[in-house]
Amino acid sequence: MTDYANILVEQRGAVTLVTLNRPQSLNALNSDVLADLSSAFGKYDKDDSQRCLVLTGSGEKAFAAGADIKQMADMAAADFFLQDFFAGWQTGVVATRKPWIAAVNGFALGGGCELAMMADFIYAADTAKFGQPEIKLGVAPGMGGSQRLTRAIGKAKAMEMCLTGRMMDAAEAERSGLVAKVVPLASLLEETLKTAELIASMPPMAAMVNKEMVNAAFETNLAQGILTERRLFQILTATEDKAEGMVAFIEKRPGVWKGR
Ligand code: CO8
């Protein structure tokens, strides 16, 4: 367990479990939380013993109820601009090269929904609720919500959610393609950790490359994405893990991975 003021970090074998830990404010996200997360995600990315990360919220009520409204209420536009407010989420969290999963255990609103969507995929408790209610505060998503939500669930629902600020429950989120799986709240962590352990058992460089390829689908046109995939595939064929994976298959035994 590493010491942070706003998050808990625990290594469980090859899986890093990070828990947002400001339950008194429903895990609202402020600059200190971002600093803690950036440090924890950075350490995870550099630690060869860690191969998947799970991010969840403390308590049963919220994953994160948004960016911290109390921190931002008195800030002027110039403060947001000069600090390039929210830019740190890109460098501190999104830039993580290894796989990570969001286990959404309750409200994921505003910045909370945006943080969950930064994950490689989301598992949700049946009690989870997603929304981009910023419009009710006179603002709009600022951590990628308008872009990632639209790519995840399409324009019709994303526009409706941003313009009305309504919440989407877990069943609708799964139907709409926002979450990979919905499980009862009581088994959310166990189920997510199980999947994380499965990912952690894969050849780690191949996991990073698979992540990069799928993400390329959001950043590029089809021809460029397919070229990116082919080139990354070709790079993987040069790894020791590729040689081991094929031999292990033929010898009917599990692969032993070197991560290179
Ligand atoms: N920021 C700061 N504190 C919060 C936040 C938040 N986003 N959400 C909840 N809290 C606090 C509450 O103020 C309350 O604290 P206190 O006990 O000191 O009053 C505590 O958490 C518990 O919350 P509630 O009493 O409200 O709990 P309820 O069960 O009644 O309601 C809700 C739960 C529905 C989740 C409700 O808390 C809520 O609507 N929260 C805000 C959701 C929201 O609007 N999120 C989007 C935030 S905006 C954003 O993410 C990006 C843009 C921000 C720009 C702001 C510019 C000024």
UniProtKB/TrEMBL annotation:
Its EC number is 4.2.1.17. The keyword Lyase applies. One of its GO terms (molecular function) is 3-hydroxyacyl-CoA dehydratase activity. PROSITE patterns: ENOYL_COA_HYDRATASE (PS00166). The keyword Iron does not apply. Belongs to the enoyl-CoA hydratase/isomerase family. This is enoyl-CoA hydratase. It comes from Sphingomonas mucosissima. The gene is echA8_5.
